[in-house]
Amino acid sequence: MDGAWVPLALTLKVAGWATFLNLLLGVGTGFLLARKRFFGRELLDAVLTLPMVMPPTVLGYYLLVLIGRRGPLGEWLQSTFGISLIFTWQGAVIASTIVAFPLVFKAARAAFESVDPQLEQAARVLGLGEAAVFLRVTLPLAWRGIMAGLLLAFARATGEFGATLMVAGSIPGKTQTLSIAVYEAVQAGQDDLANFLVLVTSVTCIAVLLTAGRLAPGRVAGQA
């Protein structure tokens, strides 16, 4: 089973980066849509939620069109910086980030909307600026919901398959994550390796889901 630890390490790296990027993108977008009123806000919400319901292979195809060597963004990156994201672990990070994005975005928006505006207004009356109100009042009250969304996103990125395979392919040691390694092991008839990889993936996801459940908003401290 020595070969199983390489895809596990790669999966944790890809999921970690995808979760970090969603911390920036999902939380920021969630705060924007929770607090700002503008034309097309709900349409934007629907578009940002699409990765939650769209087949991952379709998302992967869109990414190929966008960042592929002949895509508008991919061609620009190649000609300007000499960067190609296709068949790289960075491409797997982008695919996992987009697939898991709605889990952070929706959780962050709900968490920010649940914060009592009177508490923020009271902080402003006491002389705090907008940045201080966000860091000392809004974020502490919303962090449990945000953290639950981030953990769910990590679990989703850990099990991502379709979009990652479309964008990053299956290169052992470079882009072959756990879920892709399971597929390859089954195709090759390596049942023992497939069973071990499935067990590792399941244990990882269950541990993350249990942690996310304990951080769910509204849970009372000390509740079983």
TrEMBL record:
Keywords: Cell inner membrane, Cell membrane, Membrane, Molybdenum, Transmembrane, Transmembrane helix, Transport. It is a multi-pass membrane protein. Pfam families: BPD_transp_1. Signal peptide: none annotated. The keyword Lyase does not apply. GO terms for molecular function: molybdate ion transmembrane transporter activity. Its main location: membrane. The chain crosses the membrane at residues 14-34, 46-68, 80-105, 193-212. GO terms for cellular component: plasma membrane. It comes from the Bacteria. It is found in: Cell inner membrane; Cell membrane. Belongs to the binding-protein-dependent transport system permease family. CysTW subfamily. Part of the binding-protein-dependent transport system for molybdenum; probably responsible for the translocation of the substrate across the membrane. This is Molybdenum transport system permease. It comes from Piscinibacter gummiphilus.
